Amino acid sequence: MQIKPRQHLLDIWRATARHSFEDGKLVTGDTDGLSSVADAERLLCLLYPATEVPAFRLDQPDTTERDVLRALEGIGSRLEIPPNLITALNQFMRTHTGPDDSPTFSGGHYFKSADAGGEITHDQAQLGVVDSYSMSVTLCLATLGFLKVYEGTTTRPEVRRAIDELREATNARLTAAMISLLRSFTVNVFDAESEQGRRLIQVIGQNRQSDRAVLQQFARRFRPLRATIIESLTRGIQVDESIRDESQLFECGWAWGVVRDAPHVTDLDVQVPGQPDGIADRLPYVYFTVVALDGIQDLFSERTLTLGLLDADQQKLAEALRLRWELSQQYWSAVARFGSERWPLEDLPWQTTGLRLESEYFSLTVAAILVHDLVRRKATDDDLTRTVAIMERLADRGRVTSRMTRNDPVITLHNPGVTMPLAGSERSGGLLLWRMTDFSAQLLKRIIQLAELSRNIDAQDRLLRLAEQTFEHLWNRRIEDGVGADLWDDVRTVYPDARDAGPRLSWSITERLTECLVAARNLYEQQPIRSPELAQLARELLSEATHLFGKEQLEASAGADGGRGRTMRSIESRLEHARDLLDERPATAFALALPVLQELDTLAQARGAAAQEV
Which phi and psi angles does 435 have, rounded to 5°? Predict the structure, then answer.
């Protein structure tokens, strides 16, 4: 199934507007309990394409295209859509604000109790989580960009007041989310002889070297990163002094929420209320690290920088987050590619060191960090090719591109999903779990990111075919009717053996699909990969065609307005166009040159036949 970003995004917008708005007002009550994560995901399904795809812009009503208006008719008319979106965003900001006027980042129903049949308490549901911090960064930046453009198009007093209210609330939420991300970053230092140390050595050494050799290699490989951590991490984190000892192992990344004893951030021009004490253990999770990386990179996007969306305090926080963003990418990318032969990441499935879990989902999250790093440092062809092979294996092992067998245990990867205990959450009154059900959507997202990065024709072709297969798998999982019709997720449509899994609206998967379609649009906006071999052939064809055209011009003309004159002008125009395309689109230049050569040959044959008759 070919990915058609415009058509498919409009389908999602149409379904989202029909489901979430009534008479232009945002309706609530469909997220199984209060969750800032789900509420932000729902709004991003609309706002993310509207701020990232020029054809979907809603901040300049006079330029909104007709098919976009038809898709969003459930939200309002051309002039009503922006004010109604602002009202919905203000509603979100007020809903997720605490009694002290500080933003809240509740995980809500996304938290699960570790006790069978147990229920989470209201206080537990209100706990902040990295998913909410990261999603809030993306939502707030999209909102600020939307307001910056739209406010210049309206003079209505009530709309201007709503804009001012929303901008103030959005800036406060963005700052609070960035602070929470800083306070959720952690460095976990542990002894090589500890249980966690032995597991890390086993994962990266793959039982091919002695523990001592692996430890020595780890010390050498991570010496620069260790030095950076010691010298640079001073804000929002406490690092164990034992990290200075190179015999100690360490991991860095994001815990599930604010870390216990994380210091408050106080060196800002404006003090931000509501920096709650953390309860999370100093244990980095690759899943939450990926989630944080996705949100933080939006702080440095071209749109954020061009529109100047960050104030002075936010710029300080962004620089601190950027350092952690780079450290985490470098650490996990190095761990994933550790050694000189087979990568640890290629040894599926990945085993976590802190919680002793293993799953293809964790392999995918480590691969996602590797993709971030490959984009950052412009990957080599070898790194890219090996990563493509990993994605293909994950799609097969996850039964995305292969058939589900009878009583296949892989079904649990999609339903009920992969669960992780949240270390330290027991301090809230009971251990909490976090469940991930979006394996296929995350896989598609990373495949498209890799395809956008790749400048190797073979690798990109493999990725595009894999992306189309994965997208078809996901598109078939839409809910057919009832609540959430044409949104996600109904796994039974592709996995009939999932008897206990009924259709259930998932804003998480729907939002991931929206991101994937925006990324696919960006991929198609790129110039196609240039083939050096085809460029040389095209150059040779054009050289011959140009020479024959010059020769043909030596012949007597029957008049500029005659048929031969029109043909010569057409040939000259097409040759010039083909030469202009030669460097960027050699295949097109090649295709344009062939009919020109045929036409020149036809002219020469006609002239020769005429000469013989004379």
Answer: -115, 135
